[in-house]
Automatic annotation (TrEMBL):
This is sphinganine-1-phosphate aldolase. Its main location: endoplasmic reticulum. Its cofactor is pyridoxal 5'-phosphate. Gene3D superfamilies: 6.10.140.2150, Aspartate Aminotransferase, domain 1 (3.90.1150.10), Type I PLP-dependent aspartate aminotransferase-like (Major domain) (3.40.640.10). It is a single-pass membrane protein. It comes from Saitoella complicata (strain BCRC 22490 / CBS 7301 / JCM 7358 / NBRC 10748 / NRRL Y-17804).
Amino acid sequence: MSGVISTLRTQYPLGLLKNVVFTLWLLRYTTKAYRHLIGRGLIGSVKDIHAAVTRWAWGLLLKLPSSRKKIEAEIAGAKEQLEMKLVNYPQTLRRFETLPSSGLSENEVREELQALLSFSSKPWSEIQSGQVSGAVYHGGSDLSTLTSEAYSLFSLSNPLHPDIFPAVRKMEAEIVSMVLRLFNAPDGAGGAMTSGGTESILMAVKGAREMARVERRVREPEMIVPRTGHAAFDKAGHYFGVKVWHVDVDPITYKVNIADVRRLINPNTILLVGSAPNFPHGIIDDIAALSDLAVRYEIPLHVDCCLGSFIVPFLERAGFASEPFDFRLRGVTSISCDTHKYGFAPKGTSTILYRSHHLRQYQYFVSTDWPGGVYASPSIAGSRPGALLAGCWAAMVRVGEEGYLESCKEIVGAAKGVEAGLMEIDGIQIIGKPLVSVVAFTSTDLNIYEIGDELSKRGWHLNALQSPPALHIACTRLTVPVVDKLVQDVRDAVQALNEEGREKGSEGSMMALYGSGVTEMPDKSVVRRLATVFVDTLYKA
Ligand SMILES: *Cc1c(COP(=O)(O)O)cnc(C)c1O
């Protein structure tokens, strides 16, 4: 008898606990499913389920021994090709897989550096010819010399120690202040410098996540990003455990669908995102409408001006069409702006701006108990290169407002020239209505990647885009003199392909990756493996 009672006693609370846990579990998943249904709508949800099932089926198919063998062979082949292409240098270059036992003489190092400089599959002269899309944001060779001087003067400095390097602190604070003004930041705004656009975006997401955690107790953060938003937002989601909802763009304007963004907002939403402009197509999202949503639902809005950097703020004054994008819109809470793009500062510099100091604090990291001392730092890095800040500061104060206005006129003028020229070509369509420096184009009747390969033969290095297949050029100052050549070369490429007939298989590099269909497969594991092999190859000595 007493045995039965004690069993009952222990079983009853356990049973209750089980029920509670089950109910909570059920509640959690029903809430998730419900939010998905509301966020994506019925058709969207069915599409999402269909895509998930297709991916799963493909995954199974690819795991079959026969397909696995084929995939392994393909990947091994790709690896070999990549190594041949990337780790292929003249035997005259000395190799250093271990430290030289005694150091080289200064002159030997100089000679080796010269040899390295002249070894390049794309000679520097070709890169400077303006035929390479967006790779070099050049402010002129005099400016490069000046920023290098600034760099070497401050090569030992580290902003982590402002007491030892007060000048670097001053320059950094001034850079942030100058960029804040450019974006019409209100009183009380603040910002920070980072190592690049990616870190600026990481910080914006981390800050928004932290603020939602502390002020709204959000434990399963989500953010809503246009499908055309930079991959750095996915990186941020990956690093900081924030779920990323991608929202499609309108098929005509290529701006993010505002109604779809609104539907996805729920109590877990920590951040809305818009680009001004985005990387793939150079299109500015409807930031004003996003700002209205941000105000209405009291959610932060980040505007990615990494690429727009020192061009979008000057569009209006340069006499070009523009759209509202900055802190003048009440809902905009943070902006990322790359000084190392159209600011012509050395690579490795960017800024992240916040509407208020309060918002900025959430990006900081503070450790109070470390035996090394109380440790506080604004961004990801600990020690940072003061030299880069000095180079950035020098570039900005040298170019000045008039200089950037002039460069905006030149660069956007070049982009307009490209757009107008390409529009005239039969079979070529411009994507959306680009207002800034990037022009993306595609073709309804030819394979756009084959056009890309034809252009490569003519010395161009444009960016290949996917979903939908397209090419783009990010105009820089170097593009200005070669606009007509680009238009003519696209025309020639189209004509050449039309004459050859379309069946022709191409061995070009764009076709090899994008034309093979591997990027269109619903299961991305093969693409992921190939990309990983690529990164591995970068570290092969
Ligand atoms: C370049 C760019 C970024 C950030 O890139 P980084 O290479 O990290 O500087 C972010 N967004 C857009 C739209 C960009 O073009």
